Amino acid sequence: MQLIDIGVNLTNPSFASQRQAVLDRAYAAGVSQLVVTGTSVEGSEQALQACLELDESALRLFSTAGIHPHSASDWTGESEKQLHALLKEKRVRAVGECGLDFNRDFSPRPQQEKVLEAHLALAVELQLPVFLHERDANQRLLEILRDYRDRLPAAVVHCFTGEQKALFSYLDLDLHIGITGWICDERRGTHLHPLVRNIPRGRLMLESDAPYLLPRTLRPKPKNGRNEPAYLPEVLREVALHRGESLEDLAEHSSACAQAFFLLPKLPEGNK
Ligand SMILES: [Zn+2]
């Protein structure tokens, strides 16, 4: 069984000296390909560097390049040029993480919107898929995306945590949906249980968002409380349960979806 983690924050300092060990545990758990999330210009450069250093085969590790809405205030005239150069690199497979976060409002909303539009313009120009973040900003994200959607090859709302109306609005725009261990959280994720059935095959992908979002159903609980891509099978288990699918079936179609979305290479047989 093969899984693909479409969102891991491998450059997070909590993984610092252990990145190879984290990857080895992921591979041993069946997570055979990973997309490392870039959340700033510097972080996106580090994400690309990690892919090059930790995967010489160029088959397993890929990255995104973008600026998280929390950091939209950091956007300068240089940012677009720097991101453009990164997005031309072969290992960089999507524009993002970018989007709108009206939950924490770490950057002013007009600035978040401006920076999101700059990312969407890059994705249109370079014909790359988009890795989107949205919290409490469903309506504005839809309004902005509508102007770009037919010129974008694809876009995923990563770590979807919203309600049915938001989910359906994204599916209506033919977006992809990323599901994390949020669905394993008995305090705030149970509304996702009946919802995940509504995501069509070919639009659903799985992600750890590690080191964040340790699946709360995981047993035994890791002592350090830190999430790792090796725990992605727990997200698979929970999503499969609520979709009424076998683990093998969900692993198969969500991985095929991720490979098509990020244009990932097929792993040679026996190399999984
Ligand atoms: Zn996010």
Model description:
The chain has helices spanning 19-28, 41-54, 77-87, 109-126, 138-146, 164-172, 192-195, 232-243, 247-262; strands at 3-8, 31-36, 61-65, 92-101, 130-135, 155-157, 176-179, 204-206. The protein has 272 residues and is an alpha/beta fold. The chain has one domain: TIM Barrel (Alpha-Beta Barrel), CATH 3.20.20.140. An eight-stranded parallel sheet has the order 1-2-3-4-5-6-7-8. β3, α3 (77-87) and β4 (92-101) form a beta-alpha-beta unit. α2 runs parallel beside α3 and α8 packs across α9. The termini are close together. The model has no long low-confidence stretch (mean pLDDT 97).
Count of distinct strands: 8
Question: What is Rg?
Answer: 17 Å
At CATH level 2, the architecture is: Alpha-Beta Barrel
CATH class: Alpha Beta
Overall mean pLDDT = 97
> How far apart are the first and last residues' alpha carbons, in Å?
8 Å
Ligand identities: zinc ion
Shape verdict: globular
**Main sheet characteristics:** 8 strands, parallel
User: Could you give the order of strands across the largest sheet?
Assistant: 1-2-3-4-5-6-7-8
Q: Strand share of the residues? A: 15-25%
Low-confidence stretches: none
Total helices: the number is 9
- The secondary-structure element order is EHEHEHEHEHEHEHEHH
CATH superfamily: Metal-dependent hydrolases
Q: What count of domains describes the coordinates?
A: 1
